[in-house]
Design a protein that fits this description.
The chain has one domain. The protein is about 25% helix and about 25% strand. It has one helix at about 45-55; strands spanning about 10-15, 20-25, 35-40. A three-stranded antiparallel sheet has the order 1-2-3, with helices on one face. A hairpin with a 3-residue loop joins β1 and β2 (about 20-25).
Protein backbone atom coordinates (compact mmCIF):
# COMPACT_ATOMS: atom_id res chain seq x y z
CA UNK A 1 0.00 0.00 0.00
CA UNK A 2 1.28 3.48 -0.82
CA UNK A 3 -0.13 6.49 0.97
CA UNK A 4 0.72 10.02 -0.04
CA UNK A 5 -0.20 13.29 1.60
CA UNK A 6 0.65 16.92 1.06
CA UNK A 7 0.62 17.61 4.82
CA UNK A 8 3.59 15.42 5.84
CA UNK A 9 7.01 14.91 4.31
CA UNK A 10 8.28 11.75 6.01
CA UNK A 11 9.90 9.24 3.67
CA UNK A 12 9.69 5.66 4.92
CA UNK A 13 8.54 2.20 3.98
CA UNK A 14 7.41 -0.67 6.19
CA UNK A 15 7.85 -4.11 4.65
CA UNK A 16 6.19 -7.27 6.02
CA UNK A 17 5.45 -5.43 9.29
CA UNK A 18 9.07 -6.11 10.26
CA UNK A 19 11.49 -4.04 8.16
CA UNK A 20 11.57 -0.24 8.18
CA UNK A 21 13.42 1.83 5.58
CA UNK A 22 13.58 5.47 6.70
CA UNK A 23 15.54 8.47 5.57
CA UNK A 24 15.89 11.55 3.44
CA UNK A 25 15.36 9.73 0.17
CA UNK A 26 12.17 9.98 -1.83
CA UNK A 27 11.36 6.27 -2.17
CA UNK A 28 9.07 6.82 -5.16
CA UNK A 29 10.89 9.65 -6.94
CA UNK A 30 14.18 11.05 -8.12
CA UNK A 31 17.35 10.74 -6.07
CA UNK A 32 20.35 13.01 -5.53
CA UNK A 33 23.81 12.68 -3.95
CA UNK A 34 22.70 13.75 -0.45
CA UNK A 35 20.11 10.99 -0.08
CA UNK A 36 20.38 8.61 2.85
CA UNK A 37 18.47 5.61 4.17
CA UNK A 38 18.56 3.50 7.30
CA UNK A 39 17.23 -0.06 7.47
CA UNK A 40 15.82 -1.31 10.76
CA UNK A 41 14.64 -4.89 11.18
CA UNK A 42 12.44 -4.76 14.25
CA UNK A 43 8.78 -5.79 14.44
CA UNK A 44 8.00 -3.47 17.37
CA UNK A 45 9.48 -0.42 15.61
CA UNK A 46 7.55 -1.25 12.43
CA UNK A 47 4.27 -1.67 14.33
CA UNK A 48 4.75 1.61 16.21
CA UNK A 49 5.47 3.49 12.97
CA UNK A 50 2.36 2.02 11.34
CA UNK A 51 0.26 2.97 14.38
CA UNK A 52 1.58 6.55 14.32
CA UNK A 53 0.87 6.73 10.59
CA UNK A 54 -2.75 5.62 11.05
CA UNK A 55 -3.24 8.28 13.73
CA UNK A 56 -1.70 11.04 11.57
CA UNK A 57 -3.90 10.21 8.58
CA UNK A 58 -7.21 10.24 10.48
Amino acid sequence: MVRTTTEYSECYAVIDKTIVWHGGMNLLGNTYGGDNLIRIENRQAAEELLEITVQMLK
